[in-house]
Design a protein that fits this description.
This protein is α/β, with parallel strands linked by helices. The protein contains eleven helices and 17 strands. The chain folds into two domains: 190 residues, Quinone Oxidoreductase, Chain A, domain 1 (Alpha-Beta Complex), CATH 3.90.180; 132 residues, Rossmann fold. The strands form four sheets. Strands 3, 4, 5, 8, 9, 16 and 17 form a seven-stranded mixed sheet that branches. The model has no long low-confidence stretch (mean pLDDT 96). The structure holds NADP nicotinamide-adenine-dinucleotide phosphate (NAP) and zinc ion.
C-alpha cells in the first residue's frame, strides 16, 4: 500500500477538502502513475453533490487524468517507466461478457468507474484523479501522443471521447451538418473534433458571448438559442445534433432542427425532468433521439491518436487544487473557458 494525497468531498454538497487514503501497491498487471494534471468534468460536480443518487463518500473525484508512469508490474508489456499516459472514466470492467469483444465495455453492468465505484472485489472504493498518484490495470491505461501537452490533453480522457464516440458512430464527416448544443467542456471538444472530421459545424449556445471562440474552434456557424428566430431559421437543417447540456432544456425545440432521418444524441445529463417528447417531432421526419456514454478503451485510444494527428487539445484554465470549490461554482454558472484542469503539483503547496 502507498499513501495517496488528494481532495475529497466528505458528504453531498460539502466543500472538497484535503484527504489522504491508501492505494494498492502495483500488482503484476498494474501501472502506477504520477498524476500531473486532472480535468474538472461537470460529472464530477453532479457526483460530488450526489445529484444522480447513490454517491459514495468520502469521494475523490476526477476522471480526466494525465500523468507519467512511475512503476509497472511484472506482466505489463504496453507501458514502461516515464511513459506519458492517461486514465479516463473507468478502471476495470467485466472481462467475460460479449460487450468486451465488441469494444463496448462502457455499457456493461460490471464497469468499475475511476471513482464513486467499487473495485471488482465488491468492497474497495475507487478514488479518482484529484490526487497525486493512481494504480490502474494496464488494459485501462491510454497513451498520450508526444505532441500533446499533458495539461491540455487531460480533458480528452472524458470530454474528448464523449464527443468523438457519437460523432463517429453517427458518421460526422464531409457533407454532414452537425450542431453542438452548449459550448462548455464537452461542447468545445465536439466542435474541434467534428471540424477535424470534415463536418460543417454549428454551435447552438445560450448567447453569442463565446461566438469568436466557437468559430476559432472550427464552427462555421454560431447561433443563440435565447433568440427565438434561431429555431425558425435552422428548422430541418441538421444530420446530427449532439446535446451536451446538463440542464433540463426542451428537446422538442431542437428535434425540429433535424432533417429527415436526422439524429439528436444526448450526452449531457439533465439535472431535472425534461418536458415530454412530442411524438410528432420524431414521426413527422423519421427522426431519432439517442444517447451515448463515453467510449471504450479501444475507441479512447483511437480518439487520442486522432487528436495527436490533428493537434487537437482542450482550451483550459489551469488551477491549483486549493481553488477546486470555486472552480465547481464557476462550471455550474457556465463560466469556464473551456475546461478547468488541476495542476497536481499544487498538492505539495
Ligand atoms: P459544462 O462545461 O458545464 O458545459 C455545459 C454547457 O451547457 C455550458 O457551457 C452551457 O453552454 C450549456 N448550458 C448550461 N446550462 C444551460 C441551460 N440551463 N440551458 C441551456 N444550456 C446550458 O459541462 P460538461 O463538463 O461539458 O458536461 C456537460 C454534461 O455532460 C453534464 O451533464 C455532464 O455530467 C455530462 N457528461 C456526460 C458524459 C457522457 O458520457 N454522456 C460524459 C461527460 C459528461 P453555453 O454557455 O454555450 O450555452
Ligand atoms: Zn467526465
Amino acid at each position: 500500500m502507498t499513501l495517496a494525497r488528494g481532495y475529497a468531498a466528505s458528504a453531498a454538497k460539502e466543500r472538497l477538502a484535503p484527504y489522504s487514503f491508501e492505494r494498492r501497491a502495483p500488482n503484476a498487471d498494474d501501472v502506477a502513475i504520477d498524476i500531473k494534471f486532472c480535468g474538472v468534468c461537470h460529472s464530477d460536480i453532479h457526483q460530488a453533490r450526489d445529484e444522480w443518487g447513490g454517491a459514495m463518500f468520502p469521494m475523490v473525484p476526477g476522471h480526466e487524468i494525465a500523468g507519467i508512469v512511475t512503476a509497472v508490474g511484472a506482466n505489463v508489456s504496453k507501458f514502461k517507466v516515464g511513459d506519458r499516459v492517461g486514465v479516463g472514466c473507468f478502471v476495470d470492467s467485466c472481462t467475460t461478457c460479449a460487450s468486451r469483444d465488441v469494444d463496448l465495455e462502457q455499457y456493461m453492468p460490471g464497469l468499475v468507474q475511476t471513482y464513486n465505484s467499487v473495485e471488482a472485489d465488491g468492497v474497495t472504493p475507487t478514488h479518482g484523479g484529484y490526487s497525486d498518484h493512481i494504480v490502474v490495470k494496464q488494459g485501462y491505461v491510454l497513451t498520450i501522443s508526444a505532441n500533446l501537452p499533458l495539461d491540455q490533453a487531460a480533458p480528452l480522457l472524458c470530454a474528448g471521447i464523449t464527443l468523438y464516440s457519437p460523432l463517429k458512430h453517427w458518421r460526422a464527416g464531409p457533407g454532414k451538418k452537425v450542431a453542438i448544443i452548449g459550448l462548455g467542456g464537452l461542447g468545445h471538444m465536439g466542435v474541434k473534433i467534428a471540424h477535424a472530421m470534415g463536418a460543417d459545424v454549428t454551435v447552438l449556445s445560450q448567447s453569442l458571448a463565446k461566438q469568436e471562440d466557437g468559430l476559432r474552434f472550427g464552427a462555421a456557424h454560431y447561433y443563440a438559442t435565447s433568440d427565438g428566430a434561431t429555431f425558425t431559421k435552422l428548422a430541418g437543417q441538421f444530420d446530427l445534433i449532439i446535446n451536451t447540456v446538463g440542464a433540463a432544456v426542451d428537446w422538442n425545440d431542437y428535434l425540429q432542427l433535424l432533417k429527415i432521418d436526422g439524429t439528436m444524441t444526448l450526452v449531457g445529463v439533465p439535472d431535472a425532468a425534461t418536458p415530454p417528447v412530442n411524438a410528432f417531432r420524431l414521426i413527422g421526419s423519421r427522426r431519432s433521439l439517442a444517447g451515448s456514454m463515453i467510449g471504450s478503451v479501444k475507441e479512447t485510444q483511437e480518439m487520442l491518436d486522432f487528436c495527436g494527428e490533428h493537434g487537437i487539445t482542450a482550451d483550459i484554465e489551469l488551477i491549483d487544487i486549493q481553488a477546486i470549490n470555486e472552480a465547481f461554482e464557476r462550471v455550474v454558472k457556465s463560466d469556464v473557458r473551456y475546461r478547468f484542469v488541476i495542476d497536481m503539483k499544487s498538492l505539495a503547496a
